[in-house]
Amino acid sequence: MVSFLYRIDVGFPGTPNRMHAYDAEAQHIMAGSAPTFYGGGVVMDVTGKIRPPVAGDPPAPGGFVYGMYVRTYPTHGPVGVSDPLGTDTPPTSGIASVMTRGYMTVLLRGATPAVKGAPAYIWKAAAAGGQVPGGVTADGSTPANVMAIRNGYFTGPADAKGITEIAFNI
Fold first, then answer.
1. H helix runs in the chain, sequence order
2. Helix (H, G, I), strand (E, B), or coil: what is residue 148?
3. pLDDT tens, position by position, 7-50
4. Whose CA is closest to 152, among 121, 129, 108?
5. Fewer CB within 10 Å: N-end or C-end of the chain?
6. Could you list the residue range(s) of the whole structural domain that residue 60 is in?
7. Does any domain span residue 4?
8. β 50-51/41-44 pair status
9. What are the tens digits of pLDDT across the range 45-74?
């Protein structure tokens, strides 16, 4: 009998899963405030462009994330830049894909574990304790630091690398 010692990786942050329940939009990136990683939450600025959430944005439960930053494939990063294997550099300007409904693989931030069915939040305060603005977290204990993900919840615990899946606006 074969014995499997390790679990297969959940996926790559920013990758939409379950394609039957997935909607995305092309949106302009706000110059100077581009998302720095895939799989993070983004808000729509008053200029009509996307950016990571910041401390001044409305907190949960009233403040909502517009969507999740999609890792497009294939991607080559910014023009003229060649990423090493295993690295994805998001563009800092132009057009980006934003998931507005679906399931996505994300990197869990902070020390609070993901629990199946538990609410998922987006961190909007300054970076601290493993949290970064736009990062997915299970820690909703301080509403002033997070924004709600519409109908957002974890579909299971994170793997050894901290990768988990969330449902968004389902």
1. none
2. strand
3. 677 788 888 988 888 899 999 999 999 999 999 999 998 889 99
4. 121
5. N
6. 15-168
7. no
8. antiparallel
9. 888 999 999 998 988 777 789 999 998 765
